[in-house]
Amino acid sequence: MIAYKDPIPPVRRFFDDRTDYHVDANTFQSNIQEGLLVRSAGGVGFSRIQMIYRSPDEAAAMAGLIRAMVLLEREAASIDELRGTWCEREGNPIPSKDGETGSFEAWVYMRLEHIEA
User: Fold this and answer.
1) Which of 111, 55, 56 is nearest to 88 (CA)?
2) I want to staple 50 with a disulfide (CB 3.0 to 4.6 A). Which of 41, 46, 65, 90 is the partner?
3) Is residue 72 within 8 Å of 58, Cβ to Cβ?
């Protein structure tokens, strides 16, 4: 039997190694003006991940999220410490605005298939 493994730390390191983004896991640090957040959003037999990109600029928020989304879809099988097989988005990226900070955000849910799910 293969035990469940939290995919968020390996996914965070994946983005740290491949982008120049500030990357947070589960919640944004309070002082972050621009960066990517990866957090668990459920799934049974797979991991659903929500990715949120925050920026003071609306277009930059969407562009940053799309870049991260495409990178994860393309290279999910190479995530260290996670035996990933593939990843795909579960919908189109959604623009929004954070009520507390006033920052623009874009978010999407990703379906990450990996053996330890």
Assistant:
1) 111
2) 41
3) no
d(CA 106, CA 54): 7
Query: What is the band of 105 on the pLDDT scale with cuts at 50, 70, 90?
Result: very high
How far apart CA 92 and CA 95 sit, in angstroms, is 10
Q: Are 51 and 61 in contact (CB under 8 A)?
A: no
- Structural tokens at position 98: 């954070």
The pTM for the full model equals 0.93
CA gap 113, 35 in Å, rounded: 24
Q: Is the dihedral of CA 65, 70, 72, 78 positive or negative?
A: negative
Residue type, 38: V
